């Protein structure tokens, strides 16, 4: 019906940071709160979609009406996403760590194990958005990514859309003055094949509802 336009549609959302182990008790992380990704998952569910939220470690509760899969590392996040396919739409809102420790230790590292300076060797993580964007049998019909930029926001986000191969990018200005990181508000630009829409500054919940409505328009009614 009109208030459940995503009924019969399957959606996948990634959210939060990832934790990349150094040893069994230590990890590398980032400051993502998961607020925007969780808000998108909640908004898609509110429009009737069957939503799987693949989330890294956050302090937020699982949104109502959503199947949550809790993961730690980027590799675990990609595996959980793959398990969830096929979907009609994926929104990659997670702040995935670009790097992981190449050879995480099985036992807790002891002080002095590296002399006076311990060197960690890092290796690149898989790019979940780029992987899910790759053409092929299981590609979701609509793939949406985020671009957090501090300057030339739209231009950089357009280049990111091309590079990743996704359909839409939500670009947000995360320069310090905006308070986006960890805050409740967000100023975004929606970049599609057709052009750019700049949305007014609004809450992350409103951005979630706006995106969910656009997704419903783009997918149309389920067969
Ligand atoms: O390359 P960058 O990290 O700026 O791209 C941001 C977009 O790519 C976000 O949608 C983010 O969720 C996604 N991403 C990902 N896997 C990575 C890195 C980024 O899905 N390893």
From TrEMBL:
Its EC number is 4.1.1.36, 6.3.2.5. The chain holds residues 183 to 405 of 405 of the full protein. Residues 6-217 form the DNA/pantothenate metabolism flavoprotein C-terminal domain. Its cofactor is FMN; Mg(2+). GO terms for cellular component: phosphopantothenoylcysteine decarboxylase complex. Binds 1 FMN per subunit. It catalyses: N-[(R)-4-phosphopantothenoyl]-L-cysteine + H(+) = (R)-4'-phosphopantetheine + CO2; (R)-4'-phosphopantothenate + L-cysteine + CTP = N-[(R)-4-phosphopantothenoyl]-L-cysteine + CMP + diphosphate + H(+). The keyword Hydrolase does not apply. Residues 11-223 are annotated as: Phosphopantothenate--cysteine ligase. Catalyzes two sequential steps in the biosynthesis of coenzyme A. In the first step cysteine is conjugated to 4'-phosphopantothenate to form 4-phosphopantothenoylcysteine. In the second step the latter compound is decarboxylated to form 4'-phosphopantotheine. This is Coenzyme A biosynthesis bifunctional protein CoaBC. GO terms for biological process: coenzyme A biosynthetic process; pantothenate catabolic process. Keywords: Decarboxylase, Flavoprotein, FMN, Ligase, Lyase, Magnesium, Metal-binding, Multifunctional enzyme. It comes from Roseospira navarrensis.
């Amino acid at each position: 019906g009109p208030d459940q336009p995503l009924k019969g549609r399957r959606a996948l959302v990634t959210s939060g940071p990832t934790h990349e182990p150094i040893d069994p008790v230590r990890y590398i992380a980032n400051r993502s709160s998961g607020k925007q990704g969780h808000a998108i998952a909640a908004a898609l569910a509110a429009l009737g979609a069957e939503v799987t939220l693949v989330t890294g470690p956050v302090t937020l509760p699982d949104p109502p009406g959503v199947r949550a899969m809790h993961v730690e590392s980027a590799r675990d996040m990609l595996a959980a996403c793959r398990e969830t396919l096929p979907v009609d739409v994926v929104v990659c809102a997670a702040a995935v760590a670009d790097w992981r420790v190449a050879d995480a230790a099985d036992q807790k590292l002891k002080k002095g194990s590296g002399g006076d300076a311990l060197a960690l060797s890092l290796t690149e993580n898989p790019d979940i958005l780029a992987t899910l964007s790759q053409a092929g049998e299981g590609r979701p019909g609509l793939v949406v990514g985020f671009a957090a930029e501090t300057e030339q926001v739209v231009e950089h986000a357009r280049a990111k859309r091309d590079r990743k191969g996704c359909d839409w990018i939500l670009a947000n200005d995360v320069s310090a003055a905006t308070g986006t990181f960890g805050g409740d508000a967000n100023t975004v630009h929606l970049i599609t094949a057709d052009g750019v829409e700049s949305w007014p500054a609004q809450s992350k919940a409103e951005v979630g509802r706006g995106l969910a409505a656009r997704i419903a328009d783009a997918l149309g009614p389920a067969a």
